[in-house]
Amino acid sequence: MLSRVLFAPSRALRHQTESLRSFYSCSIRFDSLPTKDMPTATMSRGEFVRPRVADQAMVSRVETPIARPKMPEAVKEYGFEQAPNRYETWSESQRPKSEAMRGPRFEQMDPSSQPQSLSAMELINNYPLQFTQERVTSCDGGDGPLGHPRVFINLDKPEPKPCPYCGIRYQKIDHDHH
Length: 178
Hints:
The chain is an alpha+beta fold. The protein has helices at residues 2-7, 11-27, 73-78, 97-100, 120-126; strands at residues 52-54, 57-59, 130-132, 136-139, 151-154, 161-162, 169-172. Among the domains are: 73-120, no CATH class; 127-172, q5lls5 like domains (HSP40/DNAj peptide-binding domain, Sandwich). A 3-stranded mixed beta sheet has the order 3-7-6, with no helix packed on it. The termini are far apart.
């Protein structure tokens, strides 16, 4: 048993000799590998090119192709409006639909089968003003679980004031008392 331990090389020693053996066998081949100056038929764009040694410093040139996002033809036909009832973006930081629907996520998408929801901003703008004679009014957003908490809205100013949750606008009717 003791002789088996003495004569068998350890794993660390075996690994060290294998790595040295592979280094010396590959170092001869390094000179024959293609470089940037010697293009071969098998070298394609984006492949690693062996760095050249210049003044004890390695100079590496790797060409990497850049994937450009493209818009599928189906998305171009889909339209550039944000919603069927709104043509511009909601905020300044929002990208238009023509720029947002690009890349691999939309490559195999059929936009004609996607839902085209209406813009809530335009729907609220088309909703008529709610006139009241009271100075303070409340909005509960409807009944049941689809509503929002009751909010009291101060109507002291003569302009319409929207509900902070649902956007419905309220305005006080001014009476001229002499």
